[in-house]
From TrEMBL:
<comment type="similarity">
    <text>Belongs to the HipA Ser/Thr kinase family.</text>
</comment>
<dbReference type="InterPro" id="IPR052028">
    <property type="entry name" value="HipA_Ser/Thr_kinase"/>
</dbReference>
<keyword id="KW-0808">Transferase</keyword>
<dbReference type="GO" id="GO:0004674">
    <property type="term" value="F:protein serine/threonine kinase activity"/>
</dbReference>
<dbReference type="InterPro" id="IPR012893">
    <property type="entry name" value="HipA-like_C"/>
</dbReference>
<keyword id="KW-0418">Kinase</keyword>
<protein>
    <recommendedName>
        <fullName>HipA-like C-terminal domain-containing protein</fullName>
    </recommendedName>
</protein>
<dbReference type="Pfam" id="PF07804">
    <property type="entry name" value="HipA_C"/>
</dbReference>
<feature type="domain" description="HipA-like C-terminal">
    <location>
        <begin position="108"/>
        <end position="270"/>
    </location>
</feature>
<dbReference type="GO" id="GO:0005829">
    <property type="term" value="C:cytosol"/>
</dbReference>
Length: 341
C-alpha cells in the first residue's frame, strides 16, 4: 500500500483496513453458503485464511461495507451497477428475509449475528434486522427487542422504522457507509482499530477510544460520544457492547470520526442460547473512565428511553416484566450516580 505521504507499507497478513470487509456474522455465513463452493473455500467463513478473504473480495467486493474496491473486477462491477430503486417493503422484506435465511442474499454488515439483510428503500440504503416468522416465546422476545432497539436509537438521534409483515417484525436502519444512490464512506470498527493500533481486546470502548485519540487515530470529540454510548448502554441493560458494535467513519483520512450509534438495545433481555427467556438485569457497572457529568447525561437519556418504552404499544405483554426490571435497574443506578456529584 502507498500512503498519501508516499510511504509504502507491506502487510504479512490481511491489512487492517480490509478487516471489516471480510464476510462475517450472519451475512458472512449467508455469503459463504452461496459462494464458498464456487470459490473452493470452506463453508464456514471463520475458517478462511487471509488469502481466502482476499479471493472473496476480488470476486464479490464491489458492494462490501465501506468505500473500498479491491481489484479491477470489483471496480468494473461497481461502474456497471444500475442505480438502485426503492423496494416495496410489504413484499420485498419477507422475501429478502427468507432468502437471507437460505443463504441467498450476500451483503455487508458491521459483523453482527442477528438476522438481517441489506436493501434500498425511499429512505436510501438500509440494513434491516428481522425476527423469525414463528409464534413462540423466543421469536416474541426478539420482536420486542427490535422495538426496543428502535426506541433506543431514536433517543440517540438515529431515525429508524419498524414494520410488521406476515408475523415478522422488521427494523429498518440507515446505513452510515452509504450516501445517496451510489456514494460510499469508509468505515472501520473499533475491533479493527484496536487490533492494528492498540492491542487491548479486553478493554472497554472508552478506554480504547481514549488510547486511539492519544495516538491521533480518531478525533478527540469521539471521547465524549463513546463514553455517552457506553454509559447509556450500561444503564439500559446492553450486555453486548463488543468491539464490533462501535465504528468510525473516514471521509478524509485520520483522525476518524465516531459513526452513528447502532446495535444499542437491552440485550440483557435477549433469549439465552438454549431458549430461556430472561427478565432480569445485573446491576450497572460505573467505571471511573466515564466522568460523573457523562453518567448524569446518560441517565437522562436512559430515563427518556424508559418513558417512551413504557408508552409504546408495540411491545408484547410478556415484555412488561422487563420494563419493571429496567425501572428498578435505573433507580438503583441513579442512587449510585448521585454520589458522583
Amino acid at each position: 500500500m502507498v500512503q498519501t505521504d508516499s510511504v509504502s507499507l507491506y502487510s504479512d497478513g490481511l491489512p487492517w483496513w480490509l478487516f471489516d470487509m471480510r464476510p462475517q456474522g450472519y451475512l458472512g455465513r449467508a455469503y459463504a453458503s452461496t459462494y464458498a463452493a464456487e470459490l473452493a473455500l470452506p463453508a464456514n467463513p471463520e475458517q478462511w485464511a487471509d488469502a481466502d478473504v482476499v479471493r472473496a473480495l476480488l470476486a464479490h467486493g464491489h458492494d462490501a461495507i465501506g468505500n473500498l474496491l479491491i481489484g479491477e473486477r470489483a471496480r468494473e462491477r461497481f461502474l456497471a451497477m444500475p442505480e438502485p430503486t426503492p423496494v416495496e417493503r410489504a413484499t420485498a422484506f419477507p422475501a429478502l428475509a427468507l432468502a437471507a435465511g437460505a443463504g441467498e442474499a450476500p451483503g455487508s454488515s458491521a459483523g453482527g449475528e442477528q438476522p438481517k439483510f441489506c436493501t434500498y428503500t425511499e429512505r436510501g440504503h438500509v440494513l434491516v434486522k428481522f425476527s423469525a416468522p414463528d409464534d413462540n416465546p423466543v421469536s416474541e422476545r426478539w420482536r420486542d427487542l427490535l422495538v426496543a432497539e428502535h426506541l433506543a436509537l431514536r433517543v440517540l438521534g438515529v431515525e429508524t422504522e419498524v414494520f410488521d409483515f406476515g408475523g415478522q417484525r422488521f427494523l429498518e436502519i440507515p446505513r452510515f457507509d452509504r450516501v445517496g444512490q451510489l456514494g460510499r464512506i469508509g468505515v472501520f470498527s473499533l475491533r479493527a482499530l484496536d487490533a492494528e493500533f492498540i492491542g487491548n481486546a479486553r478493554a472497554s470502548w472508552p478506554v480504547l477510544v481514549n488510547s486511539l485519540i492519544t495516538g491521533g487515530h480518531v478525533h478527540p470529540s469521539s471521547a465524549v460520544g463513546t463514553a455517552r454510548l457506553w454509559a447509556f448502554g450500561m444503564l439500559i441493560g446492553n450486555t453486548d457492547m463488543h468491539h464490533g458494535n462501535l465504528s468510525f467513519i473516514s471521509s478524509h483520512g485520520r483522525p476518524y470520526q465516531l459513526a452513528p450509534a447502532y446495535d444499542i438495545l437491552p440485550m440483557g433481555f435477549a433469549p439465552r442460547t438454549g431458549g430461556a427467556i430472561v427478565n432480569e438485569l445485573r446491576p450497572a457497572s460505573l467505571p471511573e473512565v466515564i466522568s460523573g457529568d457523562i453518567w448524569h447525561e446518560a441517565l437522562g437519556l436512559a430515563e427518556n428511553f424508559f418513558v417512551i418504552a413504557s408508552d409504546c404499544e408495540q411491545f408484547s405483554a410478556n415484555f412488561g416484566p422487563c420494563l419493571d426490571t429496567l425501572r428498578r435497574h435505573l433507580d438503583e443506578a441513579r442512587s449510585r450516580i448521585a454520589r458522583l456529584g
